[in-house]
Design brief:
The complex is a heterodimer of chains A (170) and B (139).
Chain A: H1 4-26, H2 29-45, H3 56-78, H4 82-87, H5 99-114, H6 117-127, H7 133-140, H8 144-169
Chain B: H1 3-11, H2 21-33, H3 40-43, H4 48-53, H5 57-86, H6 93-110, H7 118-123, H8 129-138
The chains are: A mainly alpha (170), B mainly alpha (139).
């Protein structure tokens, strides 16, 4: 059993990043919470999981990613109205008092929601976690080239989708 | 639209903070989950067999049903087989007469059955190796 203080330290260091990643991936706060709790339950029950792990953040993202995929598969088979749920997805960005920023973030959240989940995951990790394609590849169990190409495809789609509002707000 | 500027703009968008109350809730859940449990055999004696049969109790139940069916069939046919086994031992005089007649017919057809000579049997009697070697040398 992993000690409570160690779990608290892991939570304080990584929970915010995992939450943002999971929220962007699942688009649902409740799902993000479920997966986050599952990750910490695993860490508590199987302390040997982190033995010899050098990049703890990348390892935890991998764990969270796998759990999230499992959850989404279960949900997809359980619920017929999955598309409707996706349409009601929650924003991953902080609220803002600036109306222009609010509009841009809303458009960006919608555009991210329209991306395939594999591209969305890579873009999130690259842009908002600032990790390398090698680390992304390790976290998502793909090759670095695949990570880079998914990022490019995703960014191109976002740019096309957001071009009007981006030009308007510039 | 400049790609680097666009990516920089995206990168600067602040993400939602994690709800603060989750920390206590999630860490409390981990404490509950890893609380040391007493051995299930002592704590819940009525449930130990569930652990034994997990994860496929239906498969185990089917196997048990098959065994019960085999036992039932075995018991129901057991007396008949014993009778059949005992049957040939009770030979009647008529049966012996028929068998002897068959034996006579066989002798007429293929000749009398010759018994092996006693000398042949002696060759295969066990002897110490040293004596076998002496016999071979003598021959």
């Amino acid at each position: 059993m992993r000690s409570e203080s160690e779990l608290e330290r892991l939570y304080d260091e990584h929970a915010q990043a995992l939450f943002a990643f999971l929220l962007n991936f699942t688009r649902h706060e409740a799902d993000a919470r479920d997966v986050l709790q599952e990750v910490f339950l695993k860490l508590a029950n199987r302390p040997q999981l982190l033995d010899g792990v050098l990049e703890v953040r990348a390892f935890l993202i991998r764990l969270a990613h796998n759990q999230a995929i499992d959850l989404m598969r279960r949900r997809a088979t359980r619920e017929k109205n999955y598309d409707q749920l996706a349409a009601e997805s929650e924003t991953v960005f902080a609220p803002s008092a600036d109306p222009d920023e609010v509009a841009f973030r809303k458009s960006l959240a919608e555009a991210l929601g329209e991306l395939p989940t594999d591209q969305c995951a890579v873009i999130h990790l690259k842009l908002w976690e600032g990790i390398t394609f090698e680390a992304i590849a390790e976290a998502l169990s793909i090759s670095p080239n695949t990570a880079a190409s998914r990022y490019r495809y995703g960014i191109d789609k976002l740019r096309d989708r957001l071009r009007p509002i981006y030009e308007e707000l510039k | 639209m400049n790609t680097e500027n666009f990516e920089e703009r995206l990168r600067n968008q602040p993400l939602r903070p994690i709800p603060t109350e989750w920390r206590e809730e999630i860490l409390a859940a981990t404490k509950v989950a890893v609380r040391p449990r007493r051995p299930s055999f002592d704590a819940q004696p009525h449930l130990w067999w569930r652990e034994l049969l997990w994860p496929s109790p239906q498969a185990w139940a089917s196997l048990a049903a098959v065994w019960l069916a085999i036992l039932a069939v075995n018991f129901s046919t057991g007396n008949g087989s014993q009778v059949a086994a005992k049957g040939p031992q009770q030979s009647s005089p008529e049966l012996i007469a028929v068998l002897r007649q068959h034996e006579r017919l066989m002798v007429e057809l293929i000749g009398p059955h010759e018994k092996p000579a006693a000398g042949c049997l002696k060759q295969f009697q066990f002897q110490p190796r040293s004596e076998l070697r002496n016999n071979t040398l003598t021959v």
